[in-house]
């Protein structure tokens, strides 16, 4: 006779869906939107990061910039060393509005917009972390 080891069933038949809070990375370096592209690239390089969270003068997250974005701007014909991050980002967002957002919702929004990473913010607009899609 063979013994079979039984696993107890979970009290919940439907486990709660995985949320952004389960998968996001810590916020990492945050810079002010009045920083120039050149300085932001230097910060990114020294921090060994592929992206930076950008905040306004009140400390609220206004968006995220990537190394590829900034390098493309720096290499463009109209670039000057006075270009500020606020000019790169434009309007606020996009964001993941809560760490309680499900991973399915976040992934759908990111793929729909063609984004590899998005900041996760709290109800006040402060950055909590970054969600990056695996490629």
TrEMBL record:
Organism source for this protein?
Streptomyces goshikiensis
Instruction: Supply the name of the protein.
Output: CBS domain-containing protein
Which domain of life does the protein's organism represent? Answer: Bacteria
Q: Where are the transmembrane segments?
A: none
Q: Which residues form the CBS domain?
A: 24-70, 98-131
**Region Disordered: start and end of each range?**
1-22
Short name of any one Pfam family annotated for the protein: CBS
Q: Does the keyword Ion transport apply?
A: no
Q: Per UniProt, which keywords does this protein have?
A: Plasmid
């Amino acid at each position: 006779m063979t013994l079979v080891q039984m696993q107890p069933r979970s009290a919940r038949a439907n486990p709660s869906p995985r949320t952004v809070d389960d998968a996001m990375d810590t916020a990492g370096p945050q810079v002010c939107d009045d920083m120039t592209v050149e300085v932001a690239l230097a910060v990114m390089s020294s921090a060994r990061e592929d992206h930076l969270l950008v905040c306004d003068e009140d400390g609220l997250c206004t968006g995220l910039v990537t190394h590829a974005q900034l390098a493309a701007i720096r290499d463009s014909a109209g670039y000057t060393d006075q270009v500020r991050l606020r000019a790169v980002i434009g309007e606020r967002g996009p964001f993941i509005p809560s760490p309680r957002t499900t991973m399915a919702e976040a992934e759908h929004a990111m793929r729909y917009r063609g984004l590899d990473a998005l900041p996760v913010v709290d109800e006040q607009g402060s950055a909590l972390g970054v969600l990056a899609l695996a490629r």
